[in-house]
Design a protein that fits this description.
Helix content is 46%, strand content 14%. The protein contains 36 helices and 29 strands.
Length: 970
């Protein structure tokens, strides 16, 4: 049964039966998207032979007309008639074909109505889908599948723009939505779309080509069947569009039909890159091709010279195989159609009925999976899935494979895993030495027109002058030099000519409109990048700094205060400085108190000494001699800190007493609005609209064109016909302040803008290259030289404009935190680690002995009191006091008069019968102190007070240190 079905299908094209009545019915019932139809009624007497001959003549006239006009839409209707005849008379249960997408659409509508599956191995238009026509099965690749490899090819060469040429048919237009999405995914924009009908004459093709030739884009994507594509490339070669700079990428409508192209067609396509579905040439494929050629010669001797497309042959073979296997798998019975119940029918379509086995057969076909001669046969969503596409380059007499594309790996050199993700060497049209860049600067080879704004002032940016002798217009300026330098470093030559334009005098927006109206090719000058202008044209990256602000006049600050001397330092820094003054004095006193007589005395004297010593370091007038190296270390570090503090304080106070005398007359935008001051801006600038948005009245705005006008208006002031402030972009304000150093100041916030840039047409490929050139120039020394040539040395004239607005800022604690940390850590280490720890270790025995006599209270309190009492005493073992004792003893022995014994000591000896070492040591200390002439008066007072306060609890001298004194006392 399967062979019987296949036989019916293969003989279907020869079963051409047509009736006028059936033709008109098919026109009405199936042509959903067809052009308008005209119903023609024919009244004949079919009971006589004459009527039959007349009907035959009418039918032949219709057939001959559409044979002479093969592109007429009724060709599709004829295919629909064949389908109706096959279903009604032959009762086929499936249909293979027709060949084109348009014909397949008509036949599929009939198949849906009769529930007869329609399988097409050549209708590839995405407009045909199983979602809209459930009984349509595509056993070929959907054209939308190849949009991904086409986009991958353009993306591999980084072409950012392309033009699409397509056939004006369902086959050609159906791919456009998927192609646009695929190209957008790789960053390629479709600049234009051009359609050609399949019967377009040479004049129509030439008109489209010349239109595309006038565009800068040189990358063309062609999607059309090979007959029209061959004619297109023949005309393109004649128009010299198959030369250098041009890139042609064609879909499988060209690459898949190479066997159908003549040598002349192939010669016109030299350098074209195309696609074709990849089919591995196996032994089965070779065997089938050989058998097909033998059988074709036997059955169709007249067609022996016609070579059919290999791919179509394979897909048609697999399609028939799929039908046969589906019939076997589903066990489809004999044909059975359910006729309508109506007693009367209007057309032949109404008499078709519905196939009882169509749904079962369709399900079996969709589930068919096998290894066909074209590869793995598997249907997904009613269409064949391809494993890979082959990328070919048409060279010489045929096509050379340069790579492959797969959904998993994308572009690759081979289908071997791990192959390079790049195509092989491609020979482009005209055989250029390098890959074409995909666009041209001047499509017609003409010199580009570069508009330059005319200005009344700020000619450092753009200056247009005319020679008095030659009359030649000379255009110079910072913007011009930057643009010329960028053009010199472009990777391709650019020919251009500057054209002055006075539209900028009214508004720079008018100048940008010239680009929108395609009156100029570029705009070079001080054009600010704004959002509204970018809607009309493209801008490069800025070549100057961005932002705008205002300039006002300055006046002397007459306000003064008697407390200005405290303003250089912040409150936190004042408090920190005082705290460290006290802390440093305390640390020095603690270290020197037990060993230095200059740091002893009454409590009030000692407190005064702490403060006096610390603050005397401010002017380095401290005269107290330091005995300990630890205190000397502390003072050295502190003197360094004081030096930095005093120097910074002096500098800040000086700045406040000088620079602070100049203050801006206006510091806030709201102040201008509140007082109703007049303001100015540069003519043609976008700032006017920004000021209106900020709330300024247009009647309070004045336009100026030069630096001199700015200075004149500001000096007169708002009340005398001038303005209180001028708003402009930062580069202009800096230029103004560099020329007028005194009396003006830039104040207020800086409002953000994008800066100055060069203007290009929308989607111009030059925009990116020029932007990269600007960035490269900005990173080189050449940009600095250009700036110096036009604006001078930066900082050559600062004046008050470089001063801070308002008063000089005071110094904060944060600025000196590191110094305070250094001196604090050093002083703490000297005090705690090297001094108090040493004291506790050396005096540990005396401290333990003094704790019981330290008074009442807790143990910790008694211990603390004992420590403080013991620490307040002299360290008689220190070199200072030890030297005094030795000198006193030597002076007493040399005179031969022993020191008299005190009366209370003699009495004590008589009462006790012996001398107390403690008493001897106390008296000895008193005598020694009184006998030394060099002892300072303060120390004598100190000794006397200690005798009165300490009494008998004073620390005794070590007897062994002065044996001569002990003997004389006895």
């Amino acid at each position: 049964m399967a062979r019987q079905h296949c036989r019916y299908l293969m003989h279907a094209p020869s079963c051409f039966f047509v009736s006028l009545h059936l033709l008109l019915a098919a026109l009405v019932a199936t042509a959903q998207n067809a052009p308008s139809q005209v119903r023609v009624g024919v009244i004949l007497d079919l009971t006589s032979p004459v009527g039959h001959r007349q009907r035959t003549g009418i039918q032949m006239a219709v057939e001959d007309y559409y044979a002479a006009h093969p592109t007429s839409a009724t060709k599709e209707y004829r295919m629909a008639l064949l389908a109706v005849d096959l279903i009604e008379n032959t009762q086929v249960q499936a249909i293979i074909g027709p060949p084109t997408s348009a014909e397949a659409e008509f036949v599929s509508h009939i198949g849906d109505r009769a529930h007869v599956p329609v399988l097409s191995y050549s209708a590839t238009s995405p407009a045909l889908s199983a979602a809209q026509m459930p009984f349509f099965v595509r056993t070929a690749a959907n054209d939308s599948f190849q949009t991904a490899p086409v986009a991958a090819i353009l993306g591999a060469f980084k072409w950012g723009a392309a033009v699409v040429l397509y056939e004006d048919s369902p086959y050609g237009s159906g791919i456009l939505p998927a192609l646009a999405d695929a190209l957008q995914g790789v960053g390629t924009k479709i600049m234009d779309r051009a359609s050609l009908p399949s019967d377009a004459d040479d004049g129509r093709i030439d008109a489209v080509l010349y239109h595309l030739m006038a565009m800068p884009t040189r990358v063309f994507v062609v999607h059309m069947l090979y007959p029209l594509a061959a004619r297109l490339f023949l005309r393109a070669k004649k128009a010299r569009m198959m030369s250098e700079e041009y890139v042609w990428v064609a879909t499988d409508g060209v690459g898949g039909f190479m066997d159908r192209l003549s040598p002349e067609d192939v010669d016109a396509m030299q350098g074209v890159v195309s696609l074709q579905p990849y089919v591995e040439v196996t032994d089965d494929v070779k065997n089938f091709s050989a058998r097909l050629r033998v059988r074709s010669r036997l059955e169709n001797p007249s067609d022996a010279g016609v070579v059919d497309l290999t791919l179509m042959r394979l897909w048609s073979y697999d399609t028939a195989w799929a039908i046969a296997s589906a019939v076997e798998a589903a066990d489809v019975p004999s044909p059975a159609f359910q006729t309508p119940r109506q007693s009367t029918t209007l057309t032949d379509l109404d008499r078709l009925g519905v196939s009882a086995t169509g749904a079962t057969l369709l399900k079996a076909v969709l589930a068919a999976t096998f290894d066909g001669i074209s590869g793995k046969f598997k249907l997904v969503d009613g269409q064949l899935q391809l494993a890979a596409y082959e990328v070919v380059n048409i060279i010489g007499k045929g096509a050379r494979t340069v790579g492959f594309w797969t959904p998993e790996s994308g572009i690759s050199r081979d289908l071997i895993p791990g192959s390079s993700n790049a195509l092989k060497q491609i020979l482009w049209p005209g055989e250029p030495p390098a890959t074409p860049k995909g666009w041209t600067v001047s499509p017609n080879g003409r010199i580009l027109l570069v508009a330059v704004p005319m200005k009344n002032g700020f000619k450092q940016f753009v200056d247009i002058s005319e020679s008095s002798t030659t009359g030649e217009t000379k255009i110079t300026g910072y913007s011009i030099d930057v643009f010329d330098e960028v053009m010199k470093n472009m990777p391709y030559p650019v020919s251009y000519r500057y054209v002055p334009n006075n539209a900028s005098l009214e508004s720079y927006d008018k100048l940008v409109d010239l680009m929108r109206d395609q009156k100029v090719d570029m705009i070079v000058g001080d054009v600010t990048i704004t959002a509204s202008r970018m809607a009309e044209a493209d801008f490069t990256m800025p070549f100057t700094e961005s932002g705008w602000s205002m300039v006002v006049t300055v006046q002397k600050d007459t306000s003064s205060t008697m407390w200005i001397f405290v303003q250089p330092l912040s409150t936190s820094l004042w408090l920190a400085s005082l705290a460290f003054f006290f802390f440093t004095g305390f640390v020095v006193w603690v270290i020197e108190h037990r060993i230095n007589p200059e740091f002893r005395g009454r409590p009030c004297q000692q407190f005064g000494l702490i403060f006096y010593f610390a603050f005397s370091t401010l002017v380095f007038s401290h005269k107290e001699k330091l005995e300990s190296n630890l205190s000397r270390m502390v003072v050295i570090i502190w003197v360094f800190v004081v030096l930095i503090l005093t120097s910074s304080y002096t500098a800040s106070l000086t700045s406040m007493l000088t620079v602070q005398k100049l203050q801006p007359t206006v510091t806030d935008v709201r102040e201008l609005q509140r007082h109703g001051h007049y303001i100015g801006y540069q003519e043609g600038s976008f700032i006017k609209s920004s000021l209106i948005k900020m709330g300024f009245e247009e009647s309070k705005m004045k336009t100026y064109g030069s630096e001199d006008e700015y200075a004149n208006a500001l000096s007169r002031g708002s009340a005398n016909g001038g303005v209180a402030a001028v708003f402009d972009e930062i580069p202009y304000l800096k230029l103004f302040l560099s020329q007028y150093c005194d009396g003006y100041m830039m104040v207020g916030p800086i409002y953000k803008t994008a800066g100055l840039g060069f203007v290009f047409p929308r989607d111009s490929p030059m925009t990116g290259d020029v932007s990269r050139g600007i960035l490269t120039l900005a990173e080189s020394e050449k940009m600095t030289k250009i700036e110096k040539a036009w604006f001078g040395e930066p900082g050559a004239c600062r004046g008050p404009s470089s001063a801070a607005i308002g008063s000089s800022s005071n110094l904060s604690f944060q600025s000196f935190a590191g110094l305070f940390i250094i001196t604090g850590v050093a002083s703490s280490l000297m005090l705690l680690v090297y001094h108090l720890a040493t004291f506790a270790y050396r005096e540990r025995d005396e401290l333990r002995a003094a704790e019981p006599t330290a008074g009442s209270g807790s143990v910790s309190l008694r211990k603390l009191r004992a420590w403080m009492q013991h620490y307040d005493r002299k360290d008689l073992r220190s070199p200072t006091f030890k030297t005094w004792n030795d000198e006193s003893l030597r002076n007493g022995n040399e005179s031969g008069n022993p020191a008299p014994s005190p009366r209370w000591m003699g009495e004590g000896s008589q009462r006790n019968g012996a001398t107390s070492p403690f008493s001897v040591s106390v008296r000895s200390e008193m005598n020694v102190a009184s006998s030394v002439e060099e002892t300072p008066a303060s120390d004598a007072l100190d000794n006397s007070s200690e005798q009165e306060e300490e009494g008998a609890t004073m620390t005794s001298l070590d007897i062994t240190q002065s044996p001569s004194f002990v003997q004389s006392s006895r």
